[in-house]
């Protein structure tokens, strides 16, 4: 992870825990260009709950803090990867004491001129009296459907859905992954359950985007790791598109 702030945050994430992390159903991402640092706040109503920092600017790493200031403990981070630095590796804290950190790629692929971003994450699974974990894949897909229209002032955005069909390999093929891994894999997906949506703000000062958990994504049944992954990948995809706007 590049930069002193990113390296320090990464080290602290290794010592943190996902235990007890919860989010409200709806969140707003705010960006104030007057801030001395390039940072974002994730708010519920008028209350800032989480802070994001981009210590190397729009094209660098993304750090999420578990609180409303940059002095809060880091909760997750995304670093650039691959020869083009357009790959995304997400790091989350361990699920519990004595466990390893969670590190997953968010892969990008293009289908019918549309970008799709996918990732895997462990989610809880009940087996009799025991709760185990299984790894599932999810993807962000652009949409102008009802789910986004229900965000009212936001007219087009993204939906996070379960991937129903299994992948031929661990990651979908994309230029980013070809640069990093030299591997190409493809798959076909049929629509799975939609679990979250987000959309850009339109003409609203300092409001960047609105996010909402829906269906099973709003119940907490998919666990803390999934919820944090959903939120930080939403902000990362928004960051990737802001890179185009800010060029």
List the helices and strands and how they pair.
Elements lengths: L3 H12 L10 E6 L7 E6 L2 E7 L8 E4 L8 E8 L5 E6 L9 E10 L2 E14 L2 E14 L2 H4 L7 E7 L11 H7 L9 E10 L6 E7 L9 H24 L1
Antiparallel strand pairs: 1-2, 1-12, 2-3, 3-4, 4-5, 5-6, 6-7, 7-8, 8-9, 9-10, 10-11, 11-12
Description:
19% of the residues lie in helices and 40% in strands. The protein contains four helices and twelve strands, in the order αβββββββββαβαββα. It has helices at 4-15, 146-149, 175-181, 223-246; strands at 26-31, 39-44, 47-53, 62-65, 74-81, 87-92, 102-111, 114-127, 130-143, 157-163, 191-200, 207-213. The chain has a twelve-stranded antiparallel beta barrel. Strand 3 and strand 4 (62-65) form a beta hairpin. It starts with a helix and ends with a helix.
Question: Gist?
Answer:
The protein has 247 residues and is of the alpha+beta class.
């Amino acid at each position: 992870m590049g930069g002193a702030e990113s390296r320090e945050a990464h080290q602290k994430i290794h010592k943190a825990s996902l235990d007890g992390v919860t989010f409200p159903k709806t969140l707003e991402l705010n960006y104030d260009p007057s801030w001395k640092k390039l940072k974002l706040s994730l708010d519920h109503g008028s209350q800032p709950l989480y802070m994001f920092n981009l210590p190397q600017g729009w094209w660098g790493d993304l750090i999420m803090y578990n609180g409303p200031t940059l002095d809060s403990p880091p909760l997750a981070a995304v670093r650039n990867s691959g020869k083009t630095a357009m790959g995304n590796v997400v790091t989350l804290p361990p699920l519990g004491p004595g466990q390893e950190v969670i590190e997953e790629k968010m892969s990008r692929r293009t289908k019918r001129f549309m970008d799709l971003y996918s990732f895997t994450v462990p989610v809880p699974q009940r087996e009799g009296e025991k709760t185990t974990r299984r790894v599932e894949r999810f993807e962000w897909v652009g949409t102008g459907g009802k789910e986004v229209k229900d965000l009212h002032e936001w007219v087009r955005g993204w939906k996070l859905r379960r991937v129903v069909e299994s992948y031929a390999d661990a990651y979908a093929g994309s230029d980013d992954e070809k640069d990093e891994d030299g591997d190409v894999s493809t798959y076909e997906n049929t629509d799975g359950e939609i679990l979250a949506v987000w959309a850009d703000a339109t003409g609203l000062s300092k409001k960047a985007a609105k996010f909402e958990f829906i269906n099973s994504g709003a119940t907490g049944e998919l666990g803390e790791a999934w919820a944090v992954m959903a939120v930080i990948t939403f902000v990362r995809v928004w960051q990737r598109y802001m890179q185009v706007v800010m060029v």
